[in-house]
Amino acid sequence: MENQNTKDKVFQKFTWILQNPLFNFPNRVAYSRKFTVDGHTWEIRIATNSPLKLIILVGLGRPFRCEKIANLKFIVINQLNHRRNVMKEIIDTFTSICSPLVEIYAPGDGFIVNDSCIIEVHISVHKSEHEKQVDESVRNIDNKLVQSTDNLSTKKMISNSPGETVDFRGLGKVDNDYIPFLEEVCSRYPSLIDSKKRYIEWSFTTLGRVLHFLNTKKVREMDDDACNHLQTLWEELEKCEFDLSWLKPQVQSALGMKTCVEKVLAVKSLEENVITLEKDVTILKENISNLKTEAKTLKTKMFEAEVKLEITRRELVKAKEGFEECDLEAELIFVKP
After folding, report:
1. Pick from 22, 139, 206, 291: most CB atoms within 10 A?
2. Spatial CB neighbours of 47, under 8 Å, sequence gap ≥ 6
3. pTM score of the predicted model
4. 12 or 251: which carries more pLDDT confidence?
5. Cα separation of 106 and 157, whole Å?
6. CA-to-CA separations, 256 to 1, 223, 227, 238, in angstroms, rounded
7. Secondary structure of the chain in HEC code, one letter for each residue
8. Of 207, 198, 202, which is closest to residue 244 (Cα–Cα)?
9. Largest CA distance in the chain
10. What is the sign of the dihedral through the CA atoms of 320, 324, 327 and 331?
11. Contact 53, 104 (CB under 8 A)
12. Is the separation of the CB atoms in 244 and 237 below 8 Å?
């Protein structure tokens, strides 16, 4: 991994060497090791749905409360001729809930050498003006906190119980000492509250997707694609900081339905084969029965023919007794008067 960071930009290049690439195994997913860019964990997921066609998903490995606009460049390396590298570049908005998909088609030789494929991902994240303002605001708050702490009287410090928490705008419990500073920042930058609300919306949207999946899918529909889709939804939902202990058994049961479906289909297939074979056996038995009847008839005819043959032979012997042969082609002698 390489990085070239500046004041306003965070850049890193991630190189991933896939051993035994997925091109020959459609609908399988490979995960890269996680890496950090701009203080957040990122992860690459790659799948294939046809030969030499990659579907790449680059997303955040843990939830956060703001959007990231990043410039990404994907390069599939041609190991025989780098001039034939396949590249695709996008600029998109990333969150822990929503990450863009990129499709890359890499035809020809050189992309898989010695059962390995090399993929480079260049990630460039620019800090937004809002992030710069928030950073500056946080620094100012730190300075004010130091100043205000120095000016606090002993009486005021004693009046606030250490560790006392209060509800902050319905978003959660916060230490009472931090409330004035949070109120000041949120008043200046309402988008901080909006980001929290958007994060909550994303979380419940993801939960809704999982619940909708579980309540609309049939058991027979739980094939590889459906299981992979549910697994992806579940992984996203696990990042939303919900207590999912009540839902996890149902999701695991649904993911296990693929094996159940395969067994049911295998049993049905065997049952159909048994029915077909039983019909074949019945037909063959009928044919054998017909052949036996026909053989019996032929034996009777053969016996009758043998009897007739014997009678005819005896008649021939009797006919030859005292028989003189003559030339049937000889001319009759005609005597003139």
Report:
1. 206
2. 22, 27, 28, 29, 30, 54, 55, 57, 228
3. 0.37
4. 251
5. 66
6. 37, 10, 9, 18
7. CEECCCCCEEEEEEEEEEECCHHHCCCCEEECCCEEECCEEEEEEEEEEECCEEEEEEEECCCCCCCEEEEEEEEECCCCCHHHCEEEEEEEEECCCCCCEEEEECCCCCCCECCEEEEEEEEEEECCHHHHHHHHHHHHHHHHHHHHHHHCCHHHHHHCCCCCEEECCCCCEEEHHHHHHHHHHHHHCCHHHHHHHHHHHHHHHHHHHHHHHHHHCCHHHCCHHHHHHHHHHHHHHHCCCCCCCCCHHHHHHHHCHHHHHHHHHHHHHHHHHHHHHHHHHHHHHHHHHHHHHHHHHHHHHHHHHHHHHHHHHHHHHHHHCCCCCCCCCCCCCCCCC
8. 207
9. 183
10. negative
11. yes
12. yes
Is the pLDDT at 98 greater than 70? The verdict is no
Q: What span, in angstroms and rounded, lies between the C-alpha atoms of 97 and 201?
A: 10
Identify the weakest region by mean pLDDT among 13-17, 198-202, 264-268.
Answer: 198-202
Find all residues with CB under 8 Å of 76, minimum gap 6, and list them: 54, 85, 86, 87, 104, 106, 111, 117, 118, 119
Cβ atoms of residues 246 and 211 within 8 Å:
no
Whether the Cβ atoms of residue 68 and residue 76 lie closer than 8 Å to each other: no
Place of tokens 């294939």: 48
pLDDT attached to residue 151: 46
Tokens of 64: 């956060």
pLDDT score of 276 more than 90: yes
The position carrying tokens 């130091």 is 146
Would you state the structure tokens that stand for residue 2, as one six-digit string?
């390489």
Domains of the chain: which residue ranges? 2-127, 129-189, 191-255, 260-317
Amino acid found at 108: G
Cβ(239)–Cβ(202) under 8 Å? no
Q: Are strands 86-94 and 165-167 parallel, antiparallel or unpaired?
A: unpaired
pLDDT band at 111 (very low <50, low <70, confident <90, very high): confident
Q: Look at residues 46, 13, 52 and name the one whose alpha carbon lies nearest to residue 32.
A: 46
